[in-house]
Amino acid sequence: MTAQRTLVLACAGALLTALYATASMRMPLIAYFHSSQTTVDFVHMLGPGWQWPTVLYLTFVGAAFALYAAALAVVWQGIRIPRLALFGFPVLFALALMPMYPPTAVDMFHYHALGRAFWVFGANPLTTPQGTLPYPIGMSWADLPSPYGPLWSLLVAPASVLPGEHFEAGLLAFKAMAALSYLGCAALIWRTVCATRLGEESLAVVLFAWNPFVLLRTVGNGHNDLWMLLFVLLAFETARQRRWTPAVLFLTLSVVLKFASALLGPPLLLYIWTHSSGTRRERLALLGSALACAFAIALAVYAPFWAGLDTFKGLLLQSRLMITSTPVLLDVLFARVLDAVTAAEMARVLPTAVFLVLYVALVRQAGQSFAHLVVFSFTILFLYLLLATSWFRPWYMLWPVTLAALRPRSWLAPTLLSITIAASVPDLVEQFRGYWPWLAPYERAIAAPILLAFLPPLIVWLVGVFRHDGWGLDARPDIEEAVLG
Fold it and tell me: Which class for 117: exposed (0-12), middle (13-18), buried (19 or more C-beta within 10 A)?
């Protein structure tokens, strides 16, 4: 029986690899990158019209998730999976998606342009709009500087410099960086689950690394979100080992790469305070020393880019924009009874205020155990995306999904699945809502992708909350932590 299940897993992995390779051949990067003076999307590559691209997209996503479900069914039985198969197929998935043109986002082109701004032209990407410097194609939001932290501009040096003027090679290098972050996160998830939930590590790896949403958003589109999560996982893993200063330093590196992970600073610090040994004065000295080191690292990373408050220009400009988020939906509703300025302000303030109230309560719970740190950190990121952020894109769901994989046999698993399935749909709706009469009203056209991305996982998560009588779901101290006391 074990051999049969392993064969099913291998067949699912082989078919997924073939499916991803077929998609890459259908939408090759080298064929589409220079074919237009503006970025193209899967509509142009799969068209003409909207019917055939819709069928192809839904067929591809449906087939990928069906094969993923087959792999999950195998590992859910708890059988031992050869590590070569468990990690070998994710390597093949990444290789198969490397040549694909990013079909649903243009962020990778922004990374390349901004990397060249610093490493080729000597401009400051945190203050210089990328559109002011030469690049072969035009891009949306080219009038904005980089919204990312300075560490990202340092990490992209090899991909920005070594390919020279061979732009396709440079973009493939960014794809390789995305694949590296994806595989690194998978390895850290394996390591952490082995130590905290022994016997569940194969399920954790398949939940995360075999997930089509994770693969297509990270390697397919080349997003940098898993670099932020890679440092978060390192911070959590070193905290689990009670190596407190490295934990703070790794989280600092995550924050100066992409600022959203700063939300996890208070939970981590509370966990350190609760679980470190010594008197109150000794623990204060420990936290003070760790924070001083973190501040020194942040200063060193910012030094090449510092331009006063203008250093945060890109982040501040993007924070004022609203796209595909709860504040956008509220703005549409409030605009019926308020003037445009007041409606937009209320749409930002109200959900943010609700989140902040919830955030304080969530942080207070995170210090109880490592399991609580994971579950409540997931909840913080999940609710932040659902409520507080005014600029939301579907791949941001990679943030809570990565943490959810650390608790593979908890209610976080069905929440993870609902997130990744739901977040695979909004791209299609955003592209084709103009063709569907039932979405003709402006309010429906705006609401559809937001509700599709948020409502299903919110319902699944709330079911878990009521089922387990609390937001901690089934968080409980792991065996290792119980032994350590």
Answer: buried
| pLDDT value of position 6 | 81
Q: Which whole-number Å values give the CA distances from 120 to 114, 116, 141, 254, in the listed order?
A: 10, 5, 21, 25
**CA angle, residues 260, 251, 387, in degrees to nearest 5:** 25
Q: Tell me, what's the pLDDT at 1?
A: 57
Q: Count CB neighbours of 39 within 10 A.
A: 18
Residues 6+ apart with CB under 8 A from 320: none
pTM of the predicted protein model = 0.94
Beta bridge partners of 254: none
Burial (CB count <10 Å: 0-12, 13-18, 19+), residue 483: exposed
CB atoms within 10 A of CB 99: 19
Given this model, what pLDDT does residue 485 score?
42
| Helix (H) or strand (E) segment spanning residue 69 | helix 51-76
pLDDT tens column, 347-377:
999 999 999 999 999 999 999 999 999 999 9
Instruction: Characterise 179 by phi-psi region: left (phi > 0), alpha (psi -120 to 50), beta (else).
Output: alpha
Separation between Cα atoms, residue 10 and residue 12, nearest integer Å = 5
Q: What is the pLDDT of residue 315?
A: 85
Point out the residues of the chain with pLDDT beneath 50. 482-485
